[in-house]
Task: structure prediction
Amino acid sequence: MDSINNTNKTVFVGLSGGVDSAVSACLLKEQGYHVVGIFMKNWSGDDYGLQADCPWEVDQADAEAVCKTIGIEFRSFNFEKEYRAKVVEYFFNEYQKGRTPNPDVMCNKEIKFKLFLEKALEMGADYIATGHYAIKQYDAKGNPHLFKGADSNKDQTYFLYNLTSEQLSRTLFPVGNLEKSQVRKLAQQYKLPNANKPDSQGICFIGEINVLKFLMKRIPEKPGDILDIDTKAKVGTHKGIYFYTIGQRDGLGIGGQIEPYYVVDKDIDNNILYVGHGREHPAMHKAEVQLENLHLINPNLEQNILQDTDLSASVRYRNQPNLGKLIKDNMEYKFIFDKPQRAITSGQSLVLYRDSECLGGGVIV
Result:
């Protein structure tokens, strides 16, 4: 359980250059911890034409300025090699299989809560902290549990489901109990230099990128037919099935429709992209989801979860969890929703909840 006496405890805070992690550092210092600010440098150079979209120098300078303002030590960790191997290669490999990966999930799993945590502990830290909107609470036996952040619009437990119980016990989420508006207000009160910096979007640590442009640097075009799933008529040509995702509307190049087309299915073997009219086309809705790499934050809960009728799951970030049940068939896991869900996409994560507690999750097959 986290110590009541914080003065002897050291926390390495992952500073992204953004306001959430900066306020986290301030709160921890106020709580009496010895705080060290860490900027993780995971991308530099102009590989894949990304330098303009990835201003790491600006972010590092912002992180350093925050440390100077609040009077804590600043350090930079370079994880570029590992980030390329674990996150960027995974990103390309998944797209080449015709799946839509979630690099933020992988970045948290391999970089923030593995490499960063390991290095911090090696260097004498007791905890790491991040600016994630999530809450940690302990049960009567001293086991940590992960709960949704107080701000339902900002809750980030979806990206944290791969945490182990041990990793969670060593992690602090200082802004988890706050609304984003409160965090902004605190940033002003602390006179932080990045108080008005807008929230970053896009791939973890790389920033806002043009995903299609990024993919095409490595994956060659492989044109094929776009078929209307209802009539089976050819209605267009795609650039390569891996560049499209279920539920996508833009970038199909099919004009002149009264009701727009959406991607509803992909036949990877035959390189056919299926589209249907309307955002709520029936072919886009499925109730049964096959999972791989199922991970539970507290593995001893598996039997309880398999019999649980109060289980819900989310198939994408900011998607309200919906009720269903987890089933184990031989060694394979499936989640069956009570009601069909829209645009379930292979390669994305399905994250399990019981009320506001995040229990774990898996990758959608």
In short: The two ends are 36 Å apart (CA to CA).
